[in-house]
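Technical annex, item 7. During the second reporting period the consortium partners agreed on a shared format for inverse folding records so that results from different sites could be compared directly. Each record opens with the tokenized structure and is followed by the designed sequence. A conforming record, contributed by the partner at site C, is shown below for reference.
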């Protein structure tokens, strides 16, 4: 009995000597903390992508980001992971997320060295971007995305600093209907008017262009849009 009592006292003394359990870490309830779910794929602060088919978020026009978040939630864009993350969120919360990423004024990563484009690709790519193709009712990319191709506030994204595979994937999604924008869907019209070769040429040409610094979206277009685009304010050239 005495031995048991001594053993009990020794154990009790040992437990008393143990340090108190560490308090659980305090996680700040901030929007930036909650959006770590986004930056796991889109990179710290949404400034770079880990995967070639995921674009950056930082600094893109707020309305554009808001419409894309709505699109994933509501089924206009098809990606189950994004839909699962966004499905329970309200428009007000999606707007808060969009405004957060749009407010991040961060430089684009330098474009990795690219092999020289074949002459035919360079010429055709520049033509589609700067002039369009009137025979197929294709406007120039610059008519909507701005002369610097860095987008136009509040709703048109830039086209530079994006991987070739991402551009091919998005144009392909518009052509097949797995990506849709608010009606009238002007990008669906543009993508379906492009040939398979033109999609590849455009993606190669755009991915090879340097990104101007700073790459802020323009505040306005110098002329009305060439066609009506859902969710994009402004007049349309007639």
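Designed sequence (site C submission):
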């Amino acid at each position: 009995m005495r031995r048991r009592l001594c053993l009990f006292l020794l154990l009790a003394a040992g437990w008393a000597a143990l340090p108190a359990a560490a308090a659980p870490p305090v996680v700040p309830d901030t929007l930036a903390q909650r959006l770590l779910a986004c930056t796991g794929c889109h990179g710290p602060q949404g400034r770079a992508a880990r995967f070639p088919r995921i674009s950056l978020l930082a600094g893109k026009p707020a309305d554009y980001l808001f419409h894309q978040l709505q699109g994933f939630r509501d089924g206009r864009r098809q990606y189950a992971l994004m839909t699962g993350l966004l499905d329970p969120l309200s428009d007000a919360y999606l707007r808060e997320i969009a405004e957060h990423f749009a407010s991040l004024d961060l430089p684009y990563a330098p474009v990795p060295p690219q092999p020289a484009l074949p002459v035919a690709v360079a010429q055709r790519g520049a033509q589609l971007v700067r002039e369009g193709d009137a025979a197929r009712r294709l406007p120039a990319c610059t008519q909507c995305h701005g002369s610097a191709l860095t987008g136009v506030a509040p709703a048109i994204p830039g086209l530079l600093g994006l991987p070739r595979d991402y551009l091919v994937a998005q144009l392909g999604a518009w052509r097949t209907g797995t990506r849709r924008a608010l009606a009238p869907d002007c990008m669906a019209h543009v993508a379906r008017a492009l040939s398979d070769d033109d999609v590849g040429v455009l993606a190669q040409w755009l991915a090879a262009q340097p990104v101007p610094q700073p790459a802020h979206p323009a505040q306005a277009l110098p002329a009305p849009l060439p066609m009506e685009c859902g969710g994009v304010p402004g007049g349309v050239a007639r």
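Residues 5-12 have pLDDT under 50 and may be disordered. DSSP finds eleven helices and no strands in the chain. All partners now use this format for quarterly exchanges.
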